[in-house]
Structures are given as structure tokens and as C-alpha cells.
Prior knowledge:
- The chain has one domain (13-152): 3-Layer(aba) Sandwich (Aminopeptidase), CATH 3.40.630.30.
- The chain is built from five helices and six strands.
- It has helices spanning 24-38, 44-51, 57-69, 115-129, 144-152; strands at 8-11, 14-18, 73-80, 83-91, 98-106, 134-136.
- Helix 1 crosses helix 3.
Amino acid sequence: MSPSSSPTEPAGGVTARPAEGGDLGRLGELHLASVSALGPVRGGPQLAASHSRGPDAPAVTASLAAALDDPGTEVLVGCIGEEVVGHAVVTCGPGDPTAELRELYVEPGARQVGVGSALLEAARAVARAQGCTGLDAIALPGDRATKNFFEDHAMVARAIVVHGSVEP
């Protein structure tokens, strides 16, 4: 999947582009940071368990390399200048009306400057290119910043997922 050959650029120096093989090491670091950041958030451990690409850097890198080769997946990187500071992963199967934004993460020091917006717009371009009419993403309960980010980009809740332990 490739949204276009040119990067998305909403603000000076901030871009989003399809990831390349040379980005794998950095993508692995960002993925591990994103999973770690989920730990203290309500619902975070369950989301981390279902979205983790592996327990360590080699497993994560192998999973991301496979994602780069998967025609139903687009891995994107967000940059300030040439520095990769964020990533997103979009999936869309043949005939699916809705694409899924499975990962969206920007390093804390690079937030509030448009990197997340650039990645989200690139994800929307991927969804449109695949013929999807919508894009789903997850915002955890209590994560007001993520919820506000998505709402600022015209994304609203359409379902609430509940979870409970099966242990007595």
C-alpha cells in the first residue's frame, strides 16, 4: 500500500511518508516506546498485549519488516526535518469499508507541532487509496489527550469496548 509518492506536509518541516527498510531500527524503538507508554493507562496493558509486535527489539524489527512487505498494511513515519519522531500503521483488507489505524505514536518531545496530524492525514490518504470510506482508531478511557486529538480531526466514538477478566 502506498498513499502517494510524495510526503504529506501540513506544517513547515513536518512530514509523513511511507516507511522504508532503512527506517526499521527507528520504527522498532518507537514501537517499543509506544507499548511502554500504554502501561499506566486504563486499558493500556490489554491494548499493549494485543498490539505488541514482540518482547524485544529483534522480534519487533522482524514484525515491522513483515508489515513493510504486507500489501494490506502501510507503515508510515512522521518526521521533523529528516528525523523520524513518530510512526503509524494502517491496515485495510480487500473489500473492507473501514481501514484501521493500528498504531499512532509520536515521541513526547515532538508533540504539538503537527507530526501526529501529518501521520493521521497520511493514514486517511492510505484508506482512500484502498477504497475505504472510513478509518477507525483506538483511544483508551481516560486518555483525554488522545481523545481530543482524534476529535480535533473529526473522529468520534462509534463503539465502546468493555473488558472483564474471565478468572473467578
